[in-house]
Structures are given as C-alpha cells and as structure tokens.
Amino acid sequence: MISNIETKSTTEIQHFQEDKLTELLTYLQEKSTYYQSVFKRHNIDISSINKLGDLAKIPVTTKDDLQQYNNDFICVPKNEIVDYVTTSGTLGNPVTFALTDADLDRLAYNEAISFACAGVSKDDTVQLMTTMDRRFMAGLAYFLGIRKLGASIIRVGAGIPELQWDSILKFKPTYLIAVPSFLLKLIAYAEANKIDYNSSSVKGVICIGESLREKDFSLNLLANKITSKWKVDLFSTYASTEMSTAFTECEQQQGGHHHPELIIVEILDDDNHPVKEGEYGELTITTLGVEAMPLLRFKTGDVVKAHASSCDCGRNTLRLSPVIGRKKQMVKYKGTTLYPPAIYDLLSDFDEIENYIIEISHNEIGTDEILIKIGAKENPQELLSQIKDHCRAKLRVLPMIEFHDVDEINKLKFPKMSRKPILFIDKR
Ligand SMILES: [Zn+2]
Predict the structure, then answer these.
(1) What's the pLDDT at 395?
(2) Distance 312 CA to ligand 1 centre (A)
(3) Dist. CA 30 → ligand 1 center (Å)
(4) How far is ligand 1, taken at its centre, from the CA of residue 118, in Å?
(5) Cα–Cα–Cα angle for 114, 115, 119, rounded to 5 degrees
(6) Ligand 1 centre from 288 Cα, in Å?
C-alpha cells in the first residue's frame, strides 16, 4: 500500500498540494468561525492564495489560539461528531478535538499508509501496547489503520510485561507498537523469566512517543540499548492529535515520510518565515481533508529539519528529522543551546537511574539553570561522577545534579490527572 502521489516529482507534489489548499481555504471560509474571523481581521482574500508560498500571507495559528477559541475551530454541527479526544493545552485546560466519521476514515488511511511505509502488510499481526481510551487519539488511530491495512491486531494496551509476553507467545505478532523505553522493561521481564526473546515472532517495532535517532539518523543511546540485546528493527513514527497525521520511517530509516494528501508542511523561524533549506525550525502544519477541526498554519512547537532529497525507497516526499525538542523548552545554558531530550537520552544510558525529572529555572542573573533530580538506589557518589563525565562529553556543559528518594521523584513525575509521565518542569 503506497499512495500514488508519494512517488511523483516534487513539482507534481507541490501542484497537487496547491489544489488541496484551495479546497481547504474555500471550506474554511464557509465553515470555520475561527478562520472566517482571521480572514476578515487581516483582509485576506482567499482567492489570492494559490501557491504554497502564498501561505505566508496568512497569520499562524498557535496552541494558545486553539485553546482560547477551541469551539470556533469546529466546522460541523454537533450531531456529525462521532469521537472526542483531548490534548494537554499550554494554558492549563485540555484542548478538545472533535472528529467526524470521515475524519476517522482519514485517520485510518493515514495510519495504514504509515504502517505500510514501515513494511507492515496484510500478512502481519501487530501487538498494540498503547492505550486506546482515556481520550487519546493515537491508540484508536493505530487500531483503525491496522484494520484498514487488513493486518491483525492484538490490543493489549500499555504496561504489564507479563501480559505482553503472554500475548507474544500466544498470538505470535510480527510487529509491536510501543514506547521504546518500555521495550527495556519487556527485555528485563523476559530475562528474569527465561523467555528467549531473540527467538520470538517479533521482527520489528513501530516506536512512538520517544526519539530513536540522532540528528544523522544513527540510533541514539536508548535505541542502541534495546537493539544490543533484542535484534529487532526499530521504526520511528512521529504524530500528534493536532496534525492527525503521522510521519513514519520507511525501511531506509532516513526520517519520517510526509504524506502530501494529508498535510502541508512548513518549517518556520522565530519570525514565522521559512528557514533556509536544511536548517532547524518549528514544524508548522496545515491539515488536508479534515472535516471537523481543520488547522491552517498551526505551529506545533516541535523543532525539526526537513530533508528534501528523494529517498532510496522510491518516494519523493520530504522526510522529517527526529524532533530535537520543543520550541518553548529550549534552554540556553552557559552559552550552549540545548533541548531536554538530549538530557533524557543521556540519562537513559544508566541502568542505576530509577527515575528522574529535569527542572529549568531562571537564576538571579536571569539566565537559565538546569537541575537534574535523580532517583537511584545505590552508590550515588560513583554514579554521580559517571553522569558528570557523560554530561561533559555529550552536552558539553554540566548541569546541577541532585539525588532524591525514588518515591519522591515518582510523585513529581506522575501528578494527578496527567496521562503521561512528566520529565521536565519549566519554572521560568
Ligand atoms: Zn523512504
């Protein structure tokens, strides 16, 4: 399953997207309370926007806009909505996303072509290790995508290594969909229970939520730690509720492929101008084919780079680099710019670290300060000097490091109502 447009020339892809953009603008003008008011306020005549480059005439949409005017983004009457999900908002309250029947079909199509891109086919059985409920979009999207692809799925859900292994041994899945750090728990469980994981049916894992690769696409520490033990292929996929679209690696593993029929991609600098080719910037997206809550020039907050050269898999669509961080979480520390994921990656190399949380604050002279709070059981002094060496080598700077009780860090990590563990607290 490969969509036709992906192997067309970049010029054809661009023209195809420009036609889709015209359709979208007409739709928004007619149905979206939010964008009607943006067009009016900024005197935008949508008929003057024909090229992708013309998008620059339209203001960007921020996460704050989405939260503040949440209901104005909905383009359909309430009785056409079939599913509600939420995402965590930047201003405190969660943001609601509504989906119509056609939006669920679009999600299914998106995941089906994304899984196919990673090599999953009708003959495969896939074990889903993420939550399908709790107002998440992702788990449902994976289920629908696997169903559309015609493959089989086992919905085990998150956690519980024992049940995961029971299902692997019973149903013999060929692929898993999992958070990569959870694979370490699966390996540990298998080792403790004498399960020979390298002779299991699993040949690949579609990895969600955490990065697998360095900027040059080589495996990062976490991914190396997994594959040094378990000989499986790891595929990265990157998506969000707002995008309702995934960027998934093909077998070449050189970045997540863009699906031109589903989303327009821009990479913008701090002034909302496109960055030069090959530079990092904030991923800004325009959804295509979404009925209930289409987004126009939505700034995702994720810092990425686009690779424009055609891929050895035969696709000519652009490929996104790993997300190096969140725009808002950028830390300027002792003259170095860094993003928290670089620290997560470094800490994941230490088995002795039970848990951790990173706090960023302003010090009295107004510059950023990094404090890593670590929960560990044994030998903090020896561990501390190893972590310090690692920081100097990998980050080129040395943040403050404190050791705490494991339970105490857990309380910070899992606050009430949060569906995901928190690794980063921004006090700036
Ligand atoms: Zn490719």
Answers:
(1) 86
(2) 6
(3) 37
(4) 9
(5) 120
(6) 22
Cα 314 to ligand 1 centre (Å): 7
Ligand 1 geometric centre to CA of 237 (Å): 13
Q: Ligand 1 centroid to 257 CA: how many Å?
A: 7
Tell me what pLDDT residue 175 has: 98
C-alpha closest to that of 345 among 235, 178, 224, 234? 224
C-alpha of residue 153 to centroid of ligand 1, in Å: 25
Q: Minimal CA–CA distance to 142: which of 207, 95, 79, 86?
A: 207
- Which residues face 154 on adjacent strands? 127
Long-range contacts of 91-98 (CB under 8 A, 24+ apart): 91/64, 91/67, 93/67, 94/135, 95/63, 95/66, 95/67, 95/70, 96/70, 97/137, 97/241, 97/242, 97/244, 97/292, 97/293, 98/74, 98/292, 98/293
pLDDT value, residue 3:
73
Would you state the pLDDT for residue 394? 84
Strand partners, 99: 83
How confident is the chain (428 residues) per 10-residue block, as mean pLDDT?
Answer: 85 97 98 98 97 96 94 98 87 86 98 96 97 92 98 96 98 97 95 98 94 91 93 96 96 96 96 94 98 98 95 96 89 84 87 92 85 88 92 89 93 79 87
Spacing, Cα 422 to ligand 1 middle (Å): 33
Distance CA 281, CA 269 (A): 5
Query: Which residue, chain included where needed, has tokens 């920081």?
Result: 391
Ordered alpha helix ranges (H), 193-339: 221-227
Global pTM reads 0.88
